[in-house]
Write a structure and sequence with these properties.
Radius of gyration: 28 Å
Structural class: alpha/beta
Distance between the termini: 87 Å
Strand content: 15-25%
Number of strands: 18
Shape: elongated
Length: 509
């Protein structure tokens, strides 16, 4: 029977479901039928495969060829099915042994000459194949993706002829280099000399808020006139955060691979820092498209999403972030598929408190300032754990010596210690503590909680803000190595509500 089944994998977000390429050769007029819900790019594989087989010196069967991509209800797109279709035709026509393709998976695009070309979004395929413990054949140009995973059953093909020789048992294919020195989380954490918090003049209050935000993974909003160092402070945030674990780094690398952004090995354990322009659309931030791709919030997974001039973003775009900030994932539904992308990011935003830059500038009235601040909806502002003022520097600060300022490395040590305490206590960082965990594990006294509730009611804050203030106070206590949260920690957390104070002062006039 002229029938062959070849295993490959599709692209479905960051998942790589198994696809079986069934090739059947039958008598009749020569024809090439491709079924199984293929997109246009997959249908064009017929011409690429025919030319590749002929130019590689193989016989193209002059028979009725039927290729089925199962399961039939899963959409297939891209050129990654060229190689498994060609291997299936060779196996069905007995030009390679049928047994040789067992326990193998094939992914790759074919050139008309028979060379195997690079494919996008291969990293999830390698991860899935490693879990199934199958041998996988990839293009040689995807070697960098395979080296990130370190799976020892990955083999690389350069041409159909060398691949056929391997399947006949006549030669070996190159694999990953087992002599590689795998990078470790601590091998790329050297702090650049030109990116240290000690270089930021003044702004001690903002630096302390940045430390708290880094320690508890809290969302931070900075308010201040132009030129006070908001963007500079946000860029220094990455120096305070610990490197990713291997599992987290693989999650991040898989999302970038699906988005078509290859990650260098030196960046593997670095947390991503994304800073989209304020003209970005909702789709570019959240993700989407005809074939859904991850957006900026998913590319910032396990890292920082920095929105500079956040008030200049369209309100509809910002409100699209509200649900992903709470759930840590975004679901994109289209007619063809529904995909989920992880997006556990830390949001850091900066803005001017007035359309003219400064609240104290007489060019803008209170009504104009309130209208400007109203571009940020209340529910969106509610997602920020800390909102701080970044004021202008006092006279003489620019010429004062800054030799005693703490370096990013010193602050990062306290941040790492506080994070270890949080993970040992609750298994999660403070920003992700549930209401039950806050009640049972955060160690608040009843009078202090009553004080916090009265303060929240007096400020007109929501129940969400009540819990967020508890999480911030718990982080402050962890940084000070205190087991119990005191009223002083709660008072300090209440001090990081600059946007509420600004709105209240404007409404009084």
């Amino acid at each position: 029977m002229a029938l062959a089944c070849v295993a490959t994998r599709a692209s479905c977000g960051v998942d790589a479901p198994l696809v079986t390429v069934e090739v059947h050769l039958s008598n009749g007029l020569p024809a090439f039928s491709l079924v199984g819900l293929p997109e246009a790019s997959v249908k064009e594989a017929k011409e690429r495969v025919r030319s590749a087989l002929i130019n590689a010196g193989f016989e193209f069967p002059m028979r009725r060829i039927t290729v089925n991509l199962a399961p039939a209800d899963l959409p297939k797109q891209g050129g990654r099915y060229d190689l498994p279709i060609a291997i299936g035709i060779l196996a069905a026509s007995k030009q390679i042994p049928l047994k040789s393709i067992e326990q193998h998976e094939f992914v790759g695009e074919l050139a008309l000459s028979g060379h195997v070309r690079y494919c996008q979004g291969i990293l999830p395929v390698i991860v899935a194949a490693s879990k199934a413990n199958n041998r996988i054949i990839l293009p040689i140009d995807n070697r960098a993706d395979a080296e990130l995973v370190g799976f020892d059953k990955v083999f690389f093909a350069t041409h159909l002829q060398s691949l056929a020789a391997y399947l006949h048992g006549q030669s070996e294919l190159p694999s990953i280099d087992f002599g590689l020195e795998w990078i470790t989380p601590t091998s790329n954490t050297g702090e650049p000399s030109n990116n240290c918090l000690s270089e930021v003049i003044g702004q001690q209050h903002a630096k302390q808020a940045l430390e708290i935000a880094a320690a508890g993974n809290h969302n931070l909003l900075m308010l201040g006139p132009p030129g006070t160092g908001k963007t500079m402070l946000a860029s220094r945030m990455m120096q305070l955060l610990p490197p990713l674990s291997y599992e987290e780094a693989l999650e991040v690398a898989s999302i970038h691979s699906v988005a078509g952004q290859n990650m260098q090995r030196q960046q593997f354990f670095q947390r991503p820092f994304r800073s989209p322009h304020h003209t970005s659309s909702a789709i570019s931030l959240v993700g989407g498209g005809a074939m859904p791709k991850p957006g900026e919030i998913s590319l910032a997974h396990r890292g920082v999403l920095f929105l500079d001039e956040v008030a200049e973003f369209p309100r509809k775009v910002l409100d699209c972030l509200r649900e992903p900030m709470e759930t840590g994932e975004v679901s994109i539904s289209r007619a063809a598929a529904k995909l989920n992308f992880l997006c556990r990011f830390q949001l850091v935003a900066a803005m001017n408190p007035s359309p003219c830059g400064d609240v104290n500038n007489a060019r803008a009235s209170n009504e104009q300032i309130i209208r400007y601040l109203s571009k940020l909806s209340g529910p969106f502002l509610d997602r920020f754990d800390l909102t701080i003022d970044v004021p202008k520097l006092p006279l003489g600060a620019l010429n004062s010596s800054n030799t005693h300022a703490e370096t990013s490395a010193t602050i990062a040590q306290r941040v790492h210690a506080a994070r270890e305490v949080q993970l040992a206590r609750s298994g999660t960082l403070n920003s992700e503590l549930s209401g039950k965990q806050l009640k049972n594990e955060a160690r608040f006294s009843a009078p202090d909680l009553l004080f916090l509730e009265e303060s929240v009611n007096r400020l007109g804050l929501s129940v969400r803000s009540y819990h967020r203030l508890q999480r911030v106070a718990r982080t402050i206590a962890d940084l000070q190595q205190e087991q119990d949260v005191s009223r002083a920690h709660i008072a300090q957390a209440l001090g990081y509500r600059a946007i509420d104070r600004l709105l209240t002062s404007l409404k009084q006039y």
